[in-house]
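batch job 7 of whatever, protein = VPS17
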Amino acid sequence: MDYVDDFEDNNPFARPDEEPRDRFESLAEETQAQEHNSENVEPVGEANGADQDLISKTDLRKLIPERFTSKYSLNIKLVSIERNKPENPILRLSVRVHGLPKFRQREYDDVRRTFNEVVKFNKYLAVSNLEVFVPVIPSSTTSYPTGGEDEKKQLMFVWQEWFNRITSNPILIRDEEFVFFVENDFGYSVINSNRKSSVASGLMRKTLKQLPVPYDPFQELAEFRPTIKNAYLLCQRLHRSLDKVSKSEKQLSIHVYDMSNKLTVLSQFETTHPGMKNMWEKLGKVVQAQSDLLLVESIGEMGILGDGIQYFVNDFYEIKEALTNRYLIMRELLQAEAQTNSKHIHANKMKNKASLDPIKVDEALRSLEYASKVQESLNLQVKRISGEMLFEKDEVVDFVEKKFKSLLKAYSLHKIDYHRKILKKLEAIRLDVRSVDERGGLSRLNRDNLASIKHNLLQSQAPSGDSWSSRTFRSLEKEEETKQRTKSQISSLQANSVDAKNAASLLGVATF
């Protein structure tokens, strides 16, 4: 009796066909070919040379196409910060879009988002883009007094810097959530909030961190995580030390203010010598001004350097966790490879049996095919994450270097300005100190052989520079004026060279 082709012959006593064996052999050949191709991949020449293998140039372009195109750009400008609830101000943004799909406009002039909404958007970017070192948005609270001009200037600067960093990343701007973040009305919430992280979290994450790190063929990334962790711990210790120094300076300012009050009381008891009374009064005022300057200096020190170090702490922590996520995915890949090998061994054992059960054969084939697809997917994911993190690593190192230099420069200028103000206050009372009596007062200490002393009361802090230095004082305002003047000159020259009317008028002027 002949069977119709549409029906399957499930007779267990029938003679086994050769088809299952062929399917086993073809699937085994495919997996072996994939393993052979993965072993014979040319290393990346541009990125890191022989140390970073397993990713060829063509694979890199396929895995990270966003890195090799300049068609898309997104620019977000922080226009102003509006007052709202404490620690939750409103950010008024201006957005310019070029080439990105799904945006309905090219310009958005009045996008208003609260700080908490931006924080939620930041967390979403970190969860949905595992291959990117997503920067952390700086906190809405600073070391400066709340609501002051210094706090507003710092928030404007650091938040604009954060927007520049996320919009300069070609992968983040292609995220669909950016469209909702820009185009939604006031009261934005993350649309793709149901998307969860594909890596372990909570207690499982802490447990997996205790296991040894899997082998990393990318040497630069293997060395980068310990470096970032050491920098994270070092910045934490540095911030704690700066906090202690700031608190000590605040306590010192209180004691200095107490000393100024005692000097003022001392001047009231000085009744016999008018020169000494005048000197104690002036010195008490100077010491009081010094206590105020010391308090302002401690606040400015934490605002400039302390907040910057805290920003590094948060940023380094996210980078460390992103590298940890990569290791967790690599461990999942090893487990998937082991599972695929076990499925392959099970299939080979089943193939060598004398009689085959078609149901078990199909089940084994499906499980082997599924395991192979999972392994291939994780392999591509690890390659994409590794390739992108090679680019991200160089960008992070460059940004940290420039940021740290700017912080040290601002901190040094702040300390110099503080000491200049103290010196100026002390120089203002030099004449009062030297004129305590007719013979020079306290300036004649240990100089009794001099009958009279000529007082040199020239100010050391002149606009041209310090009196003891041959270098002129380069103020930031003068540097800014010079830069603006040069920019205006260059723009005027370019305008004159480009403008057709000016060119025609110049050509029409007689030169004789």
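notes: The two ends are 116 Å apart (CA to CA).
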